[in-house]
């Protein structure tokens, strides 16, 4: 039977059995050798007083086996050769000596007793079946040789002896018993070792499982702790989310309130500005492109008719949004004061007075406030066919009947700030040709400063002048549409940079 559990337990049972077989065989062979060496000579003591035919032969057959076994035993101890060979020597020496001691008349009785001893020893001593057969025939051969020599009988006489055939049959049966015992012991040993190894393997696996279970329990505890931490973090996040939601709602409410206030301010600012009907009534052939960056604007336009003169202004206040809108209120209030109440119609004088009014209104001589505004003012006297212009940094552009661009620059000073008005710091009035074929434009810097286009650059004043020349041949409403369209396309994808104000008119 070949049990190989190397794949299951990492062992080879045949190798284990070989080692165990050698161990047991060495034990049996050693004890057998010691018995022959020490006990067999003792059995000769009763024979010492008996007269021997040949004393030398007697010593050789009675003490020689013990000497031979002793020498072979010493060699076996040193060289560790097969125990089967040692057992062969023991059996040969033992049965050779016994065969010599038998009387020829008692040979059959001896044979029966010797074979019985041999069978018994063969069954007790673990030998492979092959060595058992060798022992059996070797011993049998010794009996034949000794019997024929000392009993003057032939080999044929020996086999014709009564009971020999029976002994052969018994020997075969003994062989079967010995072989069966060998295989039974081998199988029992291999099963026992396999069970032991399986037991050890199961113990190791059980220990591994216990260790893995402990690790899993430890990891489970860690996961539980992490879950608790995550739960606490989740609760904290939810709490923060609720707080942020409350803040968001509060900010949104504040924003709605602020936007509502600014939209209301827009209504006030819109009410401050001249209506489209009023401007159209004063200058029928005109347009105003007004695009606040935010809800309210720092740019504003102003128009009035007094003493037969039509006055229109494009004013750009510092900043935009709410701060710019406040400044626009300051500018509108001062324009009403200077023109409508004081009756001043000279554009340069209007700007000078506007500068004084802004400085006084904002107490700029007493505070650090430096806010102000840029402006372009045109005064049209249709009776005398004159146009007067004055500018604070901002120009007036007109396109003549030859489609040439003409620029009347404003003075390089602003309205407001800590600037003392002296002779060289006052504004200048310019006389502009009065011609119904001309188109006149005034604007703030919001249009040309707008970023956009394919390279995210400013529109620039040169491009704006070129555009004004291109649209100047169109009707006023069409000009406004085209200017607005160009501006939207230029800033497409970008936020508006500043408030935009552009006024165009024809006489």
Automatic annotation (TrEMBL):
Record has Hydrolase as a keyword: yes
Spans traversing the lipid bilayer: 27-45, 57-76, 85-102, 108-127, 132-150, 162-184
Protein name listed in UniProt: SpoIIE family protein phosphatase
InterPro entries according to UniProt: Bact_Sigma-Reg (IPR052016), PPM-type-like_dom_sf (IPR036457), PPM-type_phosphatase-like_dom (IPR001932)
A Pfam family of this chain: SpoIIE
GO MF entry, a single one: phosphatase activity
This protein's record includes keyword Lyase: no
Annotated PANTHER family: HAMP DOMAIN-CONTAINING PROTEIN, STAGE II SPORULATION PROTEIN E-RELATED
Keywords: Coiled coil, Hydrolase, Membrane, Transmembrane, Transmembrane helix
Domain PPM-type phosphatase: 312-504
Domain of life: Bacteria
Coiled-coil features, chain-numbered ranges: 209-247
């Amino acid at each position: 039977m070949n049990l190989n559990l190397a794949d299951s337990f990492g062992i080879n049972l045949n190798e284990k059995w070989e080692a165990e077989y050698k161990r047991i065989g060495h034990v049996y062979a050693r004890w057998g050798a010691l018995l022959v060496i020490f006990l067999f000579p003792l059995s000769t003591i009763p024979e010492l007083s008996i007269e021997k035919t040949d004393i030398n032969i007697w010593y050789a057959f009675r003490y020689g086996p013990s000497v031979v076994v002793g020498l072979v035993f010493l060699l076996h101890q040193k060289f560790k050769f097969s125990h089967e060979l040692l057992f062969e020597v023991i059996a040969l020496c033992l049965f050779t000596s016994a065969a010599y001691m038998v009387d020829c008349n008692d040979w059959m009785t001896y044979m029966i007793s010797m074979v019985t001893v041999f069978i018994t020893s063969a069954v007790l001593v673990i030998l492979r079946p092959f060595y058992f057969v060798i022992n059996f025939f070797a011993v049998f051969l010794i009996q034949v040789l000794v019997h024929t020599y000392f009993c003057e009988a032939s080999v044929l006489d020996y086999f014709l002896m009564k009971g020999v055939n029976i002994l052969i049959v018994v020997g075969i049966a003994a062989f079967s018993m010995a072989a069966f015992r060998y295989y039974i012991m081998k199988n029992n040993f291999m099963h026992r070792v396999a069970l032991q190894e399986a037991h050890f393997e199961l113990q190791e696996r059980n220990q591994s499982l216990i260790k893995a279970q402990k690790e899993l329990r430890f990891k489970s505890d860690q996961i539980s702790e992490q879950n608790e931490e995550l739960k606490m973090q989740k609760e904290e996040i939810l709490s923060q989310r609720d707080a942020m939601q409350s803040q968001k709602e509060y900010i949104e409410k504040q924003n709605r309130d602020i936007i509502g206030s600014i939209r209301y301010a827009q209504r006030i600012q819109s009410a401050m500005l001249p209506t489209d009907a009023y401007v159209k009534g004063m200058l029928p052939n005109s347009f105003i492109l007004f695009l606040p960056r935010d809800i309210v604007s720092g740019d504003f336009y102003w128009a009035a008719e007094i003493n037969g003169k039509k006055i229109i202004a494009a004013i750009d206040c510092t900043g935009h949004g709410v701060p710019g809108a406040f400044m626009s209120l300051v500018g509108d209030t001062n324009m009403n004061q200077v023109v409508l109440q004081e009756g001043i119609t000279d554009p340069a004088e209007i700007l000078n007075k506007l500068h004084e009014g802004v400085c006084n209104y904002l107490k700029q001589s007493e505070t650090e406030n430096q806010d102000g505004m840029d402006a372009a003012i045109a005064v049209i006297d249709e009776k005398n066919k004159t146009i007067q212009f004055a500018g604070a940094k901002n120009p007036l552009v007109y396109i003549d009947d030859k489609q040439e661009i003409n620029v009347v620059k404003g003075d390089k000073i602003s309205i407001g700030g800590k600037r003392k008005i002296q002779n060289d710091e006052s504004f200048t009035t310019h006389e502009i040709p009065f011609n119904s074929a001309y188109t006149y434009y005034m604007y703030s810097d919001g249009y040309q400063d707008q970023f956009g286009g394919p390279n995210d650059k400013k529109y620039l004043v040169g491009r704006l002048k070129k555009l004004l020349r291109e649209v100047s041949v169109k009707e006023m409403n069409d000009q406004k549409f085209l200017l607005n369209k160009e501006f939207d396309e230029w800033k497409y994808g970008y936020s508006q940079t500043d408030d935009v104000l552009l006024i165009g008119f024809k006489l």
